[in-house]
Amino acid sequence: MPIQHEPISARSWLFAPGDSEKKMTKAMEGEADIVLIDLEDAVAIDNKANARPMVHDFIKANPQQRHRLWVRVNPLDGPYTLLDLAAVMPAHPGGIMLPKVYGRQDVETLDKYLEAFEVANGIEQGSTPLIVLMTETAEAMFHWGDYKGCPRVVALTWGAEDLADSIGASSNRNPDGSYSFTYEMARSFCVMGAATAGVTAIETISADFRDLDALKARAEKVRRDGYGGMLAIHPAQIPVINAAFTPTDEEIAEAQEIVDVFAANPGVGAIGWKGGMLDRPYLARAERLLKQAGKL
Questions:
Q1: How do residues 166-189 score in pLDDT, each as one tens digit?
Q2: What is the DSSP string of 201-242?
Q3: CATH topology of domain 12-246
Q4: Where is substrate annotated to bind (predicted)?
């Protein structure tokens, strides 16, 4: 029977190039919830063959951190995915990121590949979770709601740069620096797709790693919108992201009050509270926040 993965609770996902032991080590020693060791964009084609055994050896040498050490493999429409998996799966990485998908069929194909590598390496079948980059191709934008019940998937995330390339755009930004409509739509599709699938939505990177104020504002905004975490490209971004996606004491206290109000009035659909009315969606949000904070 397939393993039923729970939506992952991970606030920060830090990329580290798979051809740099120094940067992988620095990322692992930091506060990121997940380290995404990259065999795709961060590694030049000519260096991929050298990077694969480096990634294997790094994960193998750090068994206590294995659950945090995920690998972004190359996309299925290229020649490198199976080579990546053959190299890293014997080390039993914590999870896999699949980029540039075209739809659910790519995830199902990767599931079969992973199953074979798990069997070959004595790993429990179905135990390797996936995060899917679901908006990097134009075709994938039409399949954002197709991931419900998809094997292994615990999170969905989105990207703007490859999507711009896919549709032939010269830019993905408005004159004020904000994302233009197509890319805001991709962000919305990601959070709705994740909600449909019952998995965690993870916000894309902020490329300007020096502007931590802008990062804070964006991370707080997308958390309000339903995102559960964010990708990062630099260790300096991690404390900001972790703080933005961690419920505050005030939020926890308010959520607990709402839960307590409903608990004291069982069977009530709506109830007065602090001069307003609360209904069941408020209770669901409060319970979700308390669960995220480990209080429920």
A1: 999 999 999 998 999 999 999 999
A2: EEE---S-TT-HHHHHHHHHHHHHHT--EEEESSGGGHHHHH
A3: TIM Barrel (3.20.20)
A4: 72, 136
